[in-house]
Design brief:
It contains 15 helices and eight strands. The chain is of the alpha/beta class. The protein has two domains: about 220 residues, Glycerol-3-phosphate (1)-acyltransferase (3-Layer(aba) Sandwich); about 140 residues, no CATH class. Helix 10 runs parallel beside helix 11 and helix 11 runs antiparallel to helix 13.
Length: about 400
């Protein structure tokens, strides 16, 4: 999914009324949509009482889930329905520029926009105000982006700590009371025939490459074979030839080849920066020029190519080292890997019917009103990351291990 919107950014405020979210919940529209588009056939909410207790105490609640699928904001509707509350949620600007039920539902169920390519003071102020007043719980995805690796957590963005601490300070001054963060673990479990689904999905990709479906190759070896082929195609496209080395080494070399020329051209510092941060810097630098009406057409074409290269670098980062090598390899991990192939090579992931989703709520983390220590990692952010990793580590075992014969 492209996150580039060429029109100038305009803040989308949250829908404040209760009518639309109430009717969307009562009519089970989200249930129908998730079943049809995402193949989700069931859900389970665990330790929802922890969230309910914070609401009963009058705490201002920030919910911080992991973010592994595009369905994440909508599946959160189930626990909110059970508790009987509506929420506000910060969502990336590009989601408000799509057609269909998802963009409609995001707006009507309390979503408001964030422009990640530059400081969005209006969005940050809206989030702080929601928490400071305790009007409704607020949902923020601290990873920022999704990458289809349900069992791994991406580095958390510092914005969630900034928002939470400022809200706690303002709430303390205005009316008293606590701001708390509830980490939420979202886990998708594939409950179908993984070998049958994988065979059909891989066959489609192999046929697009020009291969006949192989015989006598195990599922994991077949996945690695396809991964090698898809990476080779990108190496030939951008480097002129396939490269030597392991898949992780080749991935990292291609990421560098994609980003370094852009960074040099626009004098962007990249030393010791994670690849995702480098991609964000590229987008922040290039997107405002692309959105400007006075930018010449030829320059816009170049900017689109450079932004596409940065997007490819981000896609490559999402292929995590050892995801199908470190036991236990699960059916859901296989599903996620193949869906990334589909999304990156075919443009769209196929529906993995049937999926079951588990939403587990952790204990509340009280947010201090004091500012974060300077020059070091925020302890609040570290605590949140540790809690989320713990949730994902436990939930990993909900997925069935891949059969040794696969």
């Amino acid at each position: 999914m492209s996150v580039i919107v060429e029109q100038p950014y305009q803040f989308v405020p949250p829908h404040r009324g209760n009518g639309w979210p109430t009717w969307i919940q009562r009519l089970r529209l989200v249930d129908v949509y998730l079943h049809k588009k995402e193949g989700i056939v069931g859900h389970e909410c665990r330790h929802l009482d922890r969230f309910a207790e914070s609401l009963q105490r009058g705490d201002s609640v920030l919910l911080a889930p992991n973010h592994c699928r595009y369905a994440d904001p909508l599946v959160l509707g189930w626990p909110f329905r059970e508790v009987g509350t509506h929420v506000y949620a910060m969502a990336s600007w590009h989601l408000f520029n799509r057609h269909g039920f998802d963009s409609f539902a995001i707006r009507k169920m309390g979503g408001f926009s964030i422009f990640r390519e530059s400081p969005d003071r209006q969005s940050l102020e809206t989030a702080i105000d929601i928490l400071a007043t305790g009007e409704r719980p607020l949902v923020l995805f601290p990873e920022g982006t999704t990458n289809r690796t349900n069992d791994r957590l991406q580095p958390l963005l510092e914005g969630i700590s900034f928002i939470a601490r400022n809200a706690a300070r303002r709430r303390q001054k205005q009316a008293g009371g606590r701001v708390v963060i509830h980490p939420v673990g979202i886990k998708y479990v594939f409950t179908g025939d993984i070998e049958g689904w994988s065979d059909a999905a891989l066959t489609t990709i192999e046929q697009r490459i020009g291969w006949a479906p192989p015989y006598g190759i195990g599922l994991l070896d077949r996945i690695r074979r396809v991964a090698d082929a898809l990476l080779t195609l990108k190496e030939i496209e951008h480097l002129g030839a396939s490269q030597a080395g392991s898949l992780p080494q080749r991935r990292d070399a291609l990421i560098e080849a994609l980003l370094q020329p852009i960074e040099a051209r626009y004098e962007l510092a990249s030393a010791d920066q994670p690849a995702l941060n480098r991609v964000r810097s590229v987008r922040s630098k290039l997107l405002p020029t692309l959105q400007h009406k006075a930018t010449p057409a030829g320059q816009k074409q170049q900017l689109r190519r450079e932004l596409a290269a940065a997007q490819l670098a981000q896609q490559l980062v999402s292929y995590v080292d050892g995801y199908l090598d470190e036991p236990p390899v699960t059916e859901t991990q296989v599903l996620e890997t193949i869906q990334r192939f589909e999304e990156d090579f075919l443009g769209k992931a196929s529906s993995p019917y049937p999926l079951r989703v588990i939403l587990e709520f952790d204990e509340a983390i009280e947010v201090p009103a004091a500012r974060a220590p300077r020059g070091e990692t925020d302890p609040l952010l570290e605590t949140l990351a540790t809690r989320l990793r713990g949730l994902l580590a436990r939930l990993q075992y909900e997925s069935a291990p891949l059969s040794p014969q696969a």
